[in-house]
TrEMBL record:
Residues 25-37 have a biased composition (Low complexity). PANTHER family: EBNA2 BINDING PROTEIN P100, SERINE_THREONINE-PROTEIN KINASE 31. This is Thermonuclease family protein. SMART domains: SNc. InterPro entries: SNase_OB-fold_sf (IPR035437), Staphylococal_nuclease_OB-fold (IPR016071). Residues 233-281 have a biased composition (Pro residues).
Length: 317
């Protein structure tokens, strides 16, 4: 009976060692599962679901198997759904580029390759920065409208296969789409700050731009209401000729017949007069009809055109 306590102590020690070994095995298994969940990369398939999220959910389920089965299943499902939504990239999304500077109403500099100028396809606005032309009517307003639409924004630069990639000034030719706002070119035309412009070949969005211009013209928006040329005064009607009475009848006695005179020599037809030049703004101003082929420096007439004719004055370069 004295040896029983010592035997009990030995048995208890053996049981404790066995239980400790089982616990270490379970702990090691849980740690391996958690490490696999952290280090497995999130691989996204076409549907936008994350394979890494499924691996993490599986690790969570295995590590919490000893707890409440219903509660653990619900938590894992909700976490997996959240990971799938947050990490998927929408199909067909366009790269956005920050607008660096609005040059004028139809030219914008964006953050491509450190800074590229984009000439917007299909629109034209009055000039404000051309060194060979004065500031045209509606130009400052068009630039202000462009800044309101684009300043501080990031835009999608959309090319058109019908147009070249760059113009003769090495500017990119593209549309600018503003997220949450839409087509920048259409907005400028619809507000009356730009008109539809086809440079060489028809482009994809031309029908939409033409419809927008017709709407702005009809409503007299922007330059269509504030920069239209005054109509030329109507020419005065010719005065009605004064009444001339008919000559008196000849006397009853016939007059002697006059002696025959030699026929006069034929007179050559007069040379045709040169075409009259359209009325211009004054001395020193000319146009392409009066001075064809002039390629030197010139100063444009303020306001642009008179009766559809662009007037300019030669100036030293």
């Amino acid at each position: 009976m004295r040896d029983l306590p010592r035997y009990g102590v030995v048995v208890a020690g053996v049981l404790a060692l066995a239980l400790t070994g089982c616990g270490a095995s379970e702990t090691t298994s849980e740690s391996a599962g958690a490490e696999a969940a952290v280090t497995s990369p999130d691989v996204q398939d076409e549907g936008g679901e994350s394979a890494g999220s499924d691996a993490k959910d599986a690790a969570k389920s295995s590590s919490s198997a000893a707890g409440d089965d219903d509660s653990t299943s619900e938590t894992s499902a909700s976490e997996g759904a959240g990971a799938g939504k947050g990490s998927a990239k929408p199909r067909g999304s366009k790269t956005l580029y920050r607008v660096i500077r609005v040059v004028d109403g139809d030219t914008v500099k964006v953050n491509i390759n450190g800074g590229e100028s984009v000439r917007v396809i299909g629109i034209d606005t009055p000039e404000t920065v051309d060194p060979d032309q004065p500031v045209q009517c509606g130009g400052p307003e068009a630039t202000a409208a462009a800044k309101k639409l684009l300043s501080g924004k990031s835009v999608a630069v959309v090319f058109d296969e019908s147009q070249g990639r760059r113009d003769k000034y090495d500017r990119l030719l593209a549309y600018l789409d503003v997220p949450g706002s839409g087509d920048f070119g259409e907005d400028m035309i619809r507000s009356g700050h730009a008109e539809e412009y086809t440079y060489d070949a028809a482009y994809e969005r031309k029908p939409t731009y033409l419809a927008a211009e017709q709407s702005a013209r009809s409503a007299g928006k922007g330059t269509w209401g504030s920069c239209q040329e005054e109509p030329a005064p109507a020419a005065p009607e010719p005065a009605e000729p004064a009444y001339t009475p008919p000559p008196p009848p000849p006397p009853s006695t016939p007059a002697p017949a006059p002696a025959p005179t030699p026929a006069p020599a034929p007179t050559p037809a007069p040379a045709p007069a040169p075409p009259a030049a359209p009325a211009g703004p004054g001395p020193g101003w000319t146009n392409d009809a009066l001075t064809p082929g002039y390629t030197g420096c010139r100063q444009g007439y303020p306001g642009g055109r008179i009766n559809g004719v662009y007037w300019w004055k030669p100036i030293p370069c």
